[in-house]
Design a protein that fits this description.
alpha/beta, 5-stranded mixed sheet, 7 strands, 4 helices, 21% helix, single chain
Length: 156
């Protein structure tokens, strides 16, 4: 960061300019890297376009939609109150998910229309064969990371 002082009409104004490297890096926060295959479900006019653009730039391709039959490294699920049964949707996401793949359930933050209580996500993950590992803030959205539990090692 660097600061610039300008003289305007005899008044000194302090303006701080933030370098692009300091800007929000959504893909990095989500653990998404170049070359990953990422599917997006639940897009609507309220989704975070900066987040979507950052992910596409990072992976080097467009986000895939629900019609894709590829194995997914990650799935972004934009989810709002009233979107249906989260368990059913999560169960459909597990089969095309790579063994080490992960799902991000993105929900509007508290106080925003469509907010989903975090307990709903935590309760919906196990019946779908997923485990919640972390939660993060993404502007007006909250993200919950879900993964397939690692199979326990067989005893000899």
């Amino acid at each position: 960061m660097f600061a610039c002082n300008y003289l305007l009409s005899g008044l000194e104004e302090d303006t701080t300019v933030v370098a692009a490297a300091d800007a929000q890096n959504y893909a990095q926060k989500l653990g998404i890297t170049h070359g990953m295959v990422v599917q997006e479900l639940g897009w609507d006019e309220d989704t975070n376009d900066d987040l979507r653009a950052d992910i596409e730039e990072t992976i080097g391709s467009e986000l895939l939609d629900e019609d894709s039959d590829e194995v997914m490294d990650s799935v972004l699920l934009w989810w709002r109150d009233g979107d249906g049964d989260l368990v059913d949707v999560l169960m459909e996401l597990v089969s095309p998910l790579a063994d080490d793949g992960f799902v991000w359930v993105l929900t509007p933050k508290t106080g925003n229309p469509g907010h989903v209580d975090p307990s709903e996500i935590a309760e919906s993950a196990p019946p779908a064969g997923l485990t919640q590992t972390s939660a993060i803030s993404l502007g007006d959205w909250a993200g919950s990371r879900l993964v397939q539990p690692k199979a326990p090692l067989k005893q000899r």
